[in-house]
Write a structure and sequence with these properties.
- By secondary structure, the protein is α/β, with parallel strands linked by helices.
- It contains eleven helices and ten strands.
- Helices cover 37% and strands 13% of the residues.
- The strands form three sheets. Strands 3, 4, 5, 6, 7 and 8 form a six-stranded mixed beta sheet that branches. Strands 1-2 form a two-stranded antiparallel ribbon.
Length: 327
Amino acid sequence: DASLSAQSSLSSDRYYKRAPFFCSVAPTSQVTCVGTKIEMDAEIHAAVRGGLKYWAFDWYAPDSSLRTAWILYKQSRYRYLINWCGLVRRGLLGSVPFSNSQWQANMREWAQYMREPNYQKVTVGEPNRPLLYILWDQNQLKWYFDNELTNVRACLDDLRQLLADSGIGAPYVVILDATAGAPIARTIGADAISNYIAGFKQEAVGPYVELDKQTQEFWKQMADTGMPTIPVAMVGWDTRARQEKPVPWEQGTPNPNPTQYYILPTPKELNAHMRAAVEFIHAHPNACPSKALLIYSWDECDEGGGLIPTLGDPKGSYLRAIAPVIS
């Protein structure tokens, strides 16, 4: 169970306070998190108070426990207070082999999601364009698209037609592969580039101000490709919990004394970083035409950088810090 692995990573005296606010902790520091509609309602209200306009859900197969958050969101009566969009691994858009046309069913599924009134839309050239982030993986190009970029383009063209038939704008497709995504985006007809996290070097106990500096340089590097971009802001990067107790989907051996991480920001430092992101968007209208911002992250609690209220910060000081900037 993937979600149990993340709970295990947080189960220590050093990291349990990073667990979401609704989790419980045993005397052994074992973290247990069982979310329900009540907790999801509270998350939505916290996000709205923090000024967030949408959540980009990491997309998983229906049988994955990591899809539970989206299911609870969809069941919440408060879901219309905050929009959502997909952040999808390409394999979940294609098919094996590509010729079996399962990808067409995937496009119909996403077209249906994008018709929902609370699916996040942007205005670039035309209004009402559904936002879609695609995590790029070269292996998945080989497995799910017969190693042909033209097949990826065929998927996106099919999705555009389905939405046009419904009177909805063309999807605003963002390739998450940093600067390397620019030529890919041009070839497949995507609209912009970004990345799941910013580009930065590993440092031994690096200060947050250094992560902030490198992240701002990363925004410039993406803009310099000439391809429209969506900047990604960084709440932090501290993977020590996963280094000490690795999750099964990442390679690595336990490292009981990791030193390569960035110190998490103070609320004041995070406010300044988010202000820089907003100012970058407004100062570069050609590079950032969607005026969208991606923030890492809402709840990557064991990976280092979550806005969600936690056991150690149940009132959500990070959200209070950024609300004046992005509201």
